[in-house]
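name: query_chain
kind: protein
chains: 1
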Amino acid sequence: MLTYKNIVENLDVGIAIVRNGKYLSNINIAFRDFLSLKYDVPDIKSLLTLIDSDTISLDKFKIFINFPENITSSYILNLNTGIVLGCNLKRLSIDDAETLDLLSIQDLTSQEVRIRQLTIESQQDELTGIANRRKFEYEFSRIYEFAQRTKITGALILLDLNNFKSINDRFGHSAGDRVLRQVGLALSPVVRNYEMVARVGGDEFAILISHSGEEAIERLIKQVPLALNAIKINPDDNSDLAETLEISMGYCVFPLKNASNKEVYEMADKIMYKNKFSSKNLTRA
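structure:
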């Protein structure tokens, strides 16, 4: 006959009853497996001595189990093995003689992996694999606020492909998509790990530079056209059909007094389009 105790013992969720905030009882198989326990333990203190500190951060686990009185406590425990556990501690009953709490542990690894993947996808341009406009706007706001506070110089470079429409018209949209991917690949190595290249529009890209002096910014600006010169717009390996990639750039060094990051973006954008229609390559705002 299937009993309540049998059901609890075989749940995928780790279950333990904590008496008086100290003693452990009714520990099921999943609870022991999650925490790599070979046998039952009588109390919290014994539990801490048995947990493999190479697998679980004891400091974090102590924060979880040393809970305040009379509240429900939830916690995400990241194991060094890559497993993510969702922990929940809920008071079941309390009287003058005894308190009973339910300590449950559940494997949330697949959910956490999916959440992380969705987060990456929401911030990544689907075509080029670099940051999208949403990610760019978040990082620009963060970096600009830091620059204003510390007076550390940064810069925003905006880049537009002048002849992108003609590329699509002559070679087709698949060739245009290939060019956009090549631009993303060519620009990414130009910046440092903590800086950013983003696609902010159809054929518009942004480079966000931080923690750099103006000389370093000037050197980077010279590197960008050189990096893009290697892109070949030639779908049939026929030199007679090849088209040179033409770009316009505009940039603005920040922070600027009494100017927001949106205003800095508008300055760089205006300069970029001014260069585009005046056949210039680059001017600084």
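note: The domain at 4-112 is CATH 3.30.450.20 (Beta-Lactamase).
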